[in-house]
């Protein structure tokens, strides 16, 4: 009997075929720019307006005080709990420590008199918080010192400023938020040069973005290292003393991805994921989408020691155009291939606009922190992707290829490929020798990694798909 000949179909092609319950997503076959535009339009759509509104209202309620809007500093301070006032007044030096033991009336009077004096330097504080905050304060002043937004009308973070004591207060009453600049502060800012403020705030934005991005690549970087790199590349760098004070005193922009931390008597900028690793809903459960380590000071010092083999990764001009490491990795061809594959194999109940991006974000953060690449299977499963065996093999292989292009914190911001190829800049310290346990679990040692174009990256990282019993094919 003659047997019909069947041509062999490569695994990569078998993986492309749609399985039962899968569909081609809306973003499939789009260019990177088209994809980004489609996602933004989706997030800004009227369909998501109620969800967007609920999230913004919840955040604003958390940071606002329940009170009717009032205008004077004394009235606003009287709305604040006395324990919070005592904490605030202790920051006024030795005299503040004494005042904190008094009654609320005396504390309010002391704070109001102290912080409404003309020599406090409010424009310095405003500019230190960047363009968005400076523009927001100016908008409130132009509106007469107060802006009100009904809960139902809140659709953008640009509509309200979070409170920054003692310049901006945020209150809620019935169904309305109010952003208030106290009347005394309004008077002090009446003759402010807002054009000059815009220029100063823009310089701070540039500095904060540079430091933020450098920390996102390296995980931990000393302030001195970061400042030297920033000064060498910035067109109009801020003085060392201004930034050192702003970072140490916590007067930088509203949201950054790092916190200034003293490690072995050195001012360092530490990525927030290293300081807040647990899921807020359950402190005993790891957040599977990123945060892997509970970093105390000993562990942070150990990571700094492990980084000592390499110089901090420098940021090229094109890197500075990215918002963070994830967006930088997303521009890589292999990351684009992974995203295209996931966009083309959506499960029927998966959010086609967000699923692939959420997975890429989780994968990058996992690898940065030294996570095992076998967790890529869990990330795919938790992301809602229901894949057949050929598809899973192919997707995890792509994840492994992406991982090789992800900057690792243990490598001071260099990727594993750059380290193996000798492109990572060695630190000039002939006596350096890590004497601590390596930061984070690894699937394999550097000596075992010998990547060539003809090899299967999934095999290189020792992924045994036959043992993945927890995955439902």
Top keywords for this entry?
473 residues, alpha+beta, 9 strands
Euclidean distance between termini CA atoms: 35 Å
Spans where pLDDT lies below 50 across 5 or more residues: 1-8, 278-294, 430-473
Shape: globular
Oligomerization category of the chains in this entry: single chain
What composes the largest sheet?
A: 4 strands, mixed
Query: What percentage of the residues does DSSP assign to strands (E)?
Result: 5-15%
Radius of gyration: 26 Å
How many E-type strands? Answer: 9
Strands of the biggest beta sheet: in what spatial order?
2-4-5-3
| Protein structure class | alpha+beta
- Mean pLDDT level: 81
Helical content stands at 40-55%
Number of helices: 22
How would you describe this protein?
The protein is of the alpha+beta class. Helix content is 45%, strand content 8%. The chain contains 22 helices and nine strands. It has helices at 11-14, 32-43, 49-63, 73-78, 82-89, 94-99, 104-115, 122-128, 130-142, 183-188, 194-218, 223-233, 240-249, 272-275, 297-306, 325-330, 333-343, 355-368, 375-382, 389-403, 416-420, 457-460, and strands at residues 22-23, 65-66, 146-150, 169-173, 176-180, 220-222, 258-263, 266-271, 346-347. It has a four-stranded mixed beta sheet with strand order 2-4-5-3, covered by helices on one side. A hairpin with a 2-residue loop joins strand 4 (169-173) and strand 5. Helix 17 (333-343) packs across helix 18. The longest helix has 25 residues, at 194-218. The chain starts with 10 loop residues before the first helix and ends in a 13-residue tail after the last helix. The model is unreliable at 1-8, 278-294 and 430-473 (pLDDT under 50).
């Amino acid at each position: 009997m003659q047997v019909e000949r069947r041509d062999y179909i490569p695994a990569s092609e078998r993986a492309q075929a749609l399985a039962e319950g899968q569909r081609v997503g809306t973003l499939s076959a789009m260019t990177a720019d088209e994809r980004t535009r489609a996602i933004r339009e989706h997030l800004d759509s009227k369909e998501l307006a109620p969800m967007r509104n609920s999230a913004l209202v919840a955040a604003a309620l958390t940071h606002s005080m329940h009170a009717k809007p009032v205008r004077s500093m004394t009235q606003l301070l009287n709305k604040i709990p006395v324990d919070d006032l005592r904490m605030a007044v202790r920051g006024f030096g030795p005299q503040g420590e004494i005042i904190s033991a008094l009654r609320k009336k005396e504390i309010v009077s002391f704070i109001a008199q102290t912080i409404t004096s003309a020599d406090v330097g409010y424009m310095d504080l405003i500019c230190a918080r960047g363009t968005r905050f400076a523009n927001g304060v100016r908008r409130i002043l132009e509106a007469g010192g107060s802006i009100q937004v009904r809960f139902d009308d809140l659709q953008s973070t640009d509509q309200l400023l979070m409170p920054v004591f003692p310049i901006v207060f945020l209150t809620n009453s019935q169904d309305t938020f109010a952003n208030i600049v106290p009347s005394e502060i309004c008077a002090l800012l009446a003759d402010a040069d807002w054009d000059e403020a815009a220029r100063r705030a823009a310089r701070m934005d540039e500095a904060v973005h540079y430091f933020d991005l450098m920390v996102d690549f390296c995980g931990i970087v000393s302030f001195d290292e970061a400042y030297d790199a920033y000064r060498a590349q910035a067109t109009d760098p801020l003085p060392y003393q201004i930034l050192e004070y702003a970072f140490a005193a916590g007067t930088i922009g509203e949201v950054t991805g790092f916190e200034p931390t003293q490690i072995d008597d050195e001012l360092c900028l530490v990525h927030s994921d290293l300081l807040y690793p647990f899921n807020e809903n359950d402190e005993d459960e790891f957040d599977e989408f990123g945060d892997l380590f509970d970093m105390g000071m000993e562990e942070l010092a150990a990571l700094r020691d492990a980084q000592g083999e390499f110089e901090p990764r420098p940021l090229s001009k094109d890197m500075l155009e990215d918002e963070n490491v994830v967006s930088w990795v997303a521009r890589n061809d292999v990351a684009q291939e992974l995203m295209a594959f996931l966009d083309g194999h959506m499960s029927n109940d998966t959010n086609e606009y967000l699923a692939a991006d959420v997975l890429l974000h989780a994968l990058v953060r996992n690898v940065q922190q030294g996570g095992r690449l076998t967790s890529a299977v869990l990330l795919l499963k938790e992301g809602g992707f229901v894949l057949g065996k050929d598809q899973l093999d192919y997707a995890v292989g792509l994840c492994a290829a992406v991982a090789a292009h992800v900057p690792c914190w243990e490598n001071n911001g260099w990727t594993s490929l750059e380290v193996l190829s000798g492109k990572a800049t060695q630190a000039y310290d002939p006596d350096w020798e890590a004497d601590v346990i390596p930061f984070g679990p690894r699937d394999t040692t550097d000596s075992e990694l010998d990547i060539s174009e003809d090899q299967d990256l999934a095999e290189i990282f020792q992924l045994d798909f036959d043992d993945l019993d927890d995955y439902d094919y």
